Amino acid sequence: MSQASLDPVSRLIYELSKLPGIGEKTATRLAYHLLKQSTETVASLADALTGAKARTRLCGTCFTFTDEDPCRICQDSSRDHSVICVVERPSDVLSVEQSGAHHGVFHVLHGLLSPLDGVGPDDLKIRDLVTRVGAGGVVQEIVIATNPSVEGEATAMYLARLLKPLGVRVTQLAYGLPVGGALEYTDRQTIGRALKNRVEILSA
Q: 0.70 exceeded by the pTM?
């Protein structure tokens, strides 16, 4: 069935269901929720969507989404520009920022190495990272913050081998037990990683 043959509500559900993590049931709930809202509320949402799409582009330095180039983080002179945190997606920048623990800048790869899916180094922002590290000798440390998946680990190892000869320190996020977690409900890979990254408890 073509979209043209769908009634307005069915088309709305169809379009919402295309969003990541949104199934047909969730799309249906969202559609009926929107239909209950005022015309002004729906118009405001539509305007925000079209406005974000029209005004947002990639930062020419770190490749996160931004409405100005360079982005606000790259422009901020109070940030430590000698430390670059490398992440997979623009949304990861927000996650790291919300932790309040990183005061450096970022570099977004826009994916991970995945030979089985046909994703190689030239498909990511890896060459741009190497150029950035090699320019001016400002960068001293690269913090690789890829997800602890097979692809994430492979990407981290590839970057480490590529960047260490440039004379920078290459570190990786430590993965372990979540705060408030219980051992009996934790998978063995996470426990193993926590043991590997154990730290000494300082005496008072």
A: yes
Domains and CATH numbers, the chain: 3-55 (1.10.8.420), 79-172 (3.40.1360.10), 175-204 (no CATH)
Separation in Å, CA 97 to CA 26, 91, 173: 29, 10, 14
pLDDT in tens, the chain (204 residues): 566 678 999 999 999 999 999 999 999 999 999 999 999 999 999 999 999 999 999 999 999 999 999 999 999 999 999 999 999 999 999 999 998 889 999 999 999 999 999 999 999 999 999 999 998 789 999 999 998 888 999 999 999 999 999 999 999 988 887 777 776 777 888 778 777 777 666 644
Looking up tokens 């015309």 gives 39
